[in-house]
Amino acid sequence: MNTHPLSHFMRTSVSLAFAMTLGVEVLFAQAIIPPIGTPLQEPPDVRTPLVLSAVNDPTSGRGAFSFKGSEIPPVIRVSPGQKLRITYLNRMKTSSGEVCVDGPCMNMTNLHFHGLHVSPESPQDDVLSMMAMPGESLRYTVDIPFDQPSGLYWYHTHPHGESYQQDLDGMSGAIVVEGIDRYVPGLRGLKEQILILRDAELRQGDEASSRLEAAVDMPQTICGNATGNPGRIFTVNGTVRPKIVIAPGEKQFWRIVNASPDLYADLTIDSEAMTMVALDGMPLGYHDRNHPTESVQHILLAPAGRFEAIVTGPALGTKASLRSLCVDTGADGDPNPAMVIADLDLVGRRDVSTRSRSSAADSQKTVYKPLSSEAIHDLEQRNAAFVVNFTEDKNGFYINNKKYKPADDPMVTVKTGNYIHWQVVNQTHEIHPFHIHQVHFLVYGKAGVAISDPKWMDTVNLEPGESLDLIMDFTDPIIRGISVFHCHLLKHEDKGMMAKIRFE
Ligand SMILES: [Cu+2]
């Protein structure tokens, strides 16, 4: 269940309901959420180096990132081959009003660079030994490799036991690794929209929450097998159901990250097909230069997933919205009903601050990393070198019957330099997204049968009872060190569904 203990919600939700009538800004959740139907807010861009702070919002007390005096997390733009330098200051309070899995949150924090093929050792993407208590700071210098796939990544905090609450509070932001236009030159000159999906919480029996449910057209009928009441709706860049200006026939480049700790988005734009360019930051052309795009009607984004696509403005007179369809999370899952995420505004005036965000032409060569069908077939024939079993009971969540503890030794050691066949098995009655740090994997088989159209991802959903065959890309020695893999429903991760891996 997703109910939140903070009492401030009542006050903020009431003011939201009031504001929806008056059309003024209101305090809601972690920050000011403009009223429904306002234009999509563009987060600020920043290049390395930068200073980011973890703070408690003075009104709500909730965790937040502070950047240049504002609580809007910036979009970090880096190029392959660059060093990403971040000074991260923990300015949160020593005592928290929020509740984490083991009692009151301690407000410890750090950063994870989700999807980047970088070192898991300090001062890089180290979520195990790098940890800042209130008053402490961390200095990150992350070497982005030259062959890092160009696409959409994200940063979020990763303190085991507190990840869920901090991510729910909105301590996350987008990272763009520049250069995706090398794979799809047609992206050059297109208006880029970055959409960061986070959460606004609902409270049962609360009038303002009912209004929010109505505002996003959430059906009152049960969706799938999950019981209970919906606990969340999506926000986009901090706004409930914003308007996205796009002219009829205009092509735009939409880059969407699902930064919710536990809501799935099965994204669709009414009857419009979208032209997918990348999934989880990985351009489709990176492994298959002859097929850099694919037309899709909808795409399932698990928590932490990213989707990048060319969207075409529908004909004038059409009503079109970006929606999430009902996701059946299973009998033990939390409800994940359909809702409207944003509306396409075909006649709205474009804001004047439209930036040309596609990367400038540079001297770097386009990187391709094909994996031949023979190599895939060869890996298919071998038994899985490692099997990840997801299980759960009333006491917690487990990988291979083990509940994660920070003092654990690595559960598995692998030698870098190779592609390796892994299997992930979901033995529970709810869905879970599997994620591993530092690498992407090819999802190439389901229940032992080859998938006709396999995709490279860094976070993949598992249906109840399902087993997936993955080809892990452990080829690059840059990942050497101790890292983790886990369920990306962050409450499950906090409750033990995580394990360490040693890359040798
Ligand atoms: Cu899970």
Percentage beta strand: 35-45%
Q: Which radius of gyration do the C-alpha atoms yield?
A: 21 Å
Report the biggest beta sheet as strand number plus sense, adding barrel if it closes. 7 strands, mixed
CATH superfamily of the largest domain: Cupredoxins -  blue copper proteins
Which of globular, elongated, flat, extended, rod-shaped describes the shape? globular
Helix and strand composition category: mainly beta
| Secondary structure tally, helices | 6
Given as residue ranges, the uncertain stretches (5+ residues, pLDDT < 50) are 1-32
CATH class placement of the largest domain: Mainly Beta
The CATH architecture of the largest domain can be named as: Sandwich
CATH topology name of the largest domain: Immunoglobulin-like
**How many domains make up the 3D coordinates?**
3
Helix content: under 10%
Mean of residue pLDDT?
90
Tally of extended strands?
A: 36
Distance between the termini: 40 Å
Which ligands appear in the coordinates? copper (II) ion
